[in-house]
């Protein structure tokens, strides 16, 4: 049985099941979900706790023994199984199916896993434990959801932002500072609770207190490009450079998006349905909603020029010297400026030059 994270408390209030599976890469939310299950288990009399972490040469028989036996003191027990790789192996798969089929009211099993691909979610061992147990998929908090998430966390500690534009500005400021680093975001929000009393927080208070702890994912660059969010695009590129991300990887991510847009643009011009082109180019999730507006903003000629610039940047980031064209067509000396120019082809079509006020490195 699958339940959503926001339904967990209501579920636990109705009574505990014998098996829980928490999976996903948002560590803060996964840890909080596990803490709530543990607290409910303690209240339900599961006071004896055993923890197993699957590593190489893990002894699955020890786990099965713990899940089938009573505590020496007769207490009900919580058995936690952590599989950091998400791959239990053949022996582990059989053990998990055995656990799924067990019916011991004195043992509650909590299994934690990372984010799983679709093939793993269809595996027999996973369908067995989610079929008899309760599964919680921990989805990441996307950038668009982050201001609302911050607002909810503030309200839990009795604080809120000012109404109207000032409040929206404050939530946006926090989101920009903590994007991609939810654990640090949680800590920054807790810090606001320690620094200021309950009630309304001003933008100045938030600006003075919240540190820049954002961690950017190179594979989220496409979202900033497609939405035309120039400020976020500049922050992400500056952040990736500051974190030491390889310029080759960043360039590859940008170029792949430009190539995808060009293929879809040409397909639409040839009369193919957009939905078919999106499937053919493996576009889904948030990108599926963003591709349409981006296509209407950018021209085929601009995308072709962007790929020509990308070819020069590719030589540049790989340290290959030598002119590739006329002096006026050369990319900027700093390849990160060149990548910003490349991204701006999609983000702000018709004006690929760096936007005024862009943070300098």
TrEMBL record:
Keywords: DNA replication, DNA-directed DNA polymerase, Nucleotidyltransferase, Transferase. GO terms for molecular function: DNA binding; DNA-directed DNA polymerase activity. Residues 20-130 form the DNA polymerase III delta N-terminal domain. Its EC number is 2.7.7.7. Pfam families: DNA_pol3_delt_C, DNA_pol3_delta. Gene3D superfamilies: 1.10.8.60, 1.20.272.10, P-loop containing nucleotide triphosphate hydrolases. It comes from the Bacteria. GO terms for biological process: DNA-templated DNA replication. Residues 319-338 are annotated as: Disordered. GO terms for cellular component: DNA polymerase III complex. SUPFAM superfamilies: P-loop containing nucleoside triphosphate hydrolases, post-AAA+ oligomerization domain-like. Residues 219-318 form the DNA polymerase III subunit delta C-terminal domain. It catalyses: DNA(n) + a 2'-deoxyribonucleoside 5'-triphosphate = DNA(n+1) + diphosphate. InterPro entries: DNA_pol3_clamp-load_cplx_C (IPR008921), DNA_pol3_delt_C (IPR032780), DNA_pol3_delta_N (IPR010372), DNA_polIII_delta (IPR005790), P-loop_NTPase (IPR027417). Belongs to the DNA polymerase HolA subunit family. This is DNA polymerase III subunit delta. It comes from Caballeronia arationis. The lineage of its organism: Bacteria, Pseudomonadati, Pseudomonadota, Betaproteobacteria, Burkholderiales.
